[in-house]
Every structure is written in C-alpha cells, then in structure tokens.
Amino acid sequence: MSVCKTALYLHFPFCRVKCDYCDFYSLCDLSLQEDYFRSLEKQIRDLKESYRIDGFETLYFGGGTPGLADPDLLKSLFDKIALMNDGQLPEEVTLECNPVNISRESLRAWKGMGINRLSLGVQSFRDEFLRNAGRRSSRAAILAALERLQEDGSFNLNLDLIQGLPGMNGKDQLKDLEEALSFEPDHISWYGLILEAGTVLADQWESRRSGVEDDEEEAVWHKGCRLLADNGFRRYEISNFSRPGRESRHNSLYWKMRPYLGCGPAAVSMLPGEKRQPVRFRTKEDLRAFASGSCLYTEKESLSAADFLKDFLLMGLRLAEGIDLQRFEKIFTINAEDLFPRTLDKFCGTGLLNLDGSVLRAGSEGMDLLNTILLSLFSELDEKDLTGLSCLFPL
Fold this sequence. Notes:
By secondary structure, this protein is an alpha/beta fold.
C-alpha cells in the first residue's frame, strides 16, 4: 500500500436531542464520552499504521453535536493527533457546533486546542421554521452565538442554512440568507431540505408542510445566488459559497476524490489499497461496542475502475473549478474525450458543460442541471466495455 496524506474526519455520535430531519448516527447518552475518545485515538493510530498514512491535510470533527464534546478530552485527542502529524495539527481544523454550544469559554477552549474553523448549524433564523422542523434551537440562541463569534473574530466561520423547511416560502428563504449575510461570515452552505426515510419529519411531512411552490423554487435559488455573489461570495460547489480563500479545504478534498480517513461510529473511509486501488469501508454504527474497544467495520469494498470513474465525475463536476483532465488521464490512463464524446458534443455547445483547454467544468446552469449531465455521461459509459479500464487512486 502506498504512503499518502489524507483528510481526517472524526464522527462524534452524541446529541442532547435528535432533530426531526436528521438521519446521522447519534445517541443521547453522553456518559460514554471518555471511553469513546480512548477508542477513537486507538482507531486513528491503527488505521494510520495499517494504510501507511503519512499525515493529515485537514481535520474535521463532525457529528452528532461535536460542540458538546468535553473540552479536556477533545484537547487531549487533538494533542495526540498532532504528534501523529509531525508535531502539529493540520492548517484547517473544523468543528461543527450548534448556537447553544457557543460561549466565551467554549470559544477560548476551542481556540486553545487548535480549532480555527467553525461550522454553525443555523438552519433558519425564524422560530416557527425551526419548530416546524423539530430543530431544538431558537432565534435568540442564534443571535447570541453570532454576536459572540463577531466579538471573538478569530474563527473562519461557516453558516449552515436549509431551504424549504416546513412552512417556508421563497421570501422566507431569501430573508434567512440576507440575515446570515448581515453577520459577515466567511462561508455559507445553503442547501435544500432532504427528507430522509425513517426520520420523524419524513413521517409527518404531509401534516407539517406548506411552503414554496415547485414553480417558485428555481427563481428563489437564482435570486439567492445573485445575492451571495453581490456580497462577495463565490459559488465554488453546488450548494457552498465562500469569500475568496475561505473555501472548506476538507470538503474540497472529498470532492476532488482524495484519500480520506473516517474514524468513529458510522464514519466512512476511502483509502488506497493494494496497487493503489480505492478501498472504501465504514465503521459500524455501534457506539457501545466502539466505546468498549470493539472497533467493527463493514466489509471493505474494493472499487472497480468504472465505479471510481463515475464517482470521480459526480464529485468533480460539483466543483466550479471542474475536473483537471491531465489529472484525469494520470488516474485512469485514458483520455476523457475518448470515453464520452457524445455527451461532450451534446452539452459543450450549450454552456451547461465547458471544455476549456485541459479542464472540464459545468457552467452555472450546468451545476443546477448536473443530474441531467451525469445521466448522459453514465449512460454513455455503460455502453462501453470498461473491463480493461485501470485506476490509480490519486494520492
């Protein structure tokens, strides 16, 4: 197996209360934290050694509700990760948190342990929409958190907003976006609500819904994108907007299909296996077994070159910068234009896709219609015999 650097994702599977729309793995028993952190450190160390990981490019602590993590336990873990990474943490260290987690004391503690980027789950500024979605937050808590963050001023700040919560119309969505911009964050993730099967909100959707009509959604989206652009934000990924230089480096590594190590229950890893073939696996969703020292995995999946190719296209075309075709050829040892000439001919003249020198990218409208483009790409690939296609996982 090859030596490589990876993005490091840590899943914190604890919440006070689960939101009605959430299907991420988490439990509401915080008593297992100490054992969880002990097992988490061991898992990172073991996988780093097994896959000959040379270090970490980014660190992202997600969940769950990572803002609940015991600061002493978290600092101890980060100190040990630094020792595994040539004595220092990666340049970008992100923590997900909720408004209620923000205090002067928590900000001081997080800064002291090396966290420099926060992703704050706002979702909406209106109590009625938070309540309709089963979100245990409030406008008052959000405003207090943002005021403290402005006062502190030392974190690269992302705000998460959800479009289409129950009861929202288009004006409500834009008003949320305008209010978020008034706090001058560095980054905004503005994405549509996805109803996940089995969640409380999905089961009760019909009784809670009333909001933006289908024929209004596209106009609202375009108005929001213009508003963000007018305020200095660049749409660098389908649903992610940032000020120059403030993009999420961690998520960008995912979208560029670079290796990532995921640790903690439910976390997914994709790493180079034998002969640099991509290997994907997940830590099993069993917090109690994990905390007791039994780190269990799903069956490791060795991705075929054809499957990795489709994932590579799906992720790469999400990015405004698109796909570097010279890099593409190094990975798959074939010219992209030879693989799907029909799709390129169909879309490149329309502005939906652009072939600019050695870069293939979706235009702004193409990003909005990416599923249509991908269906065409995948259909054309499925017609070809790809059994001889090779793949070298990009390190």
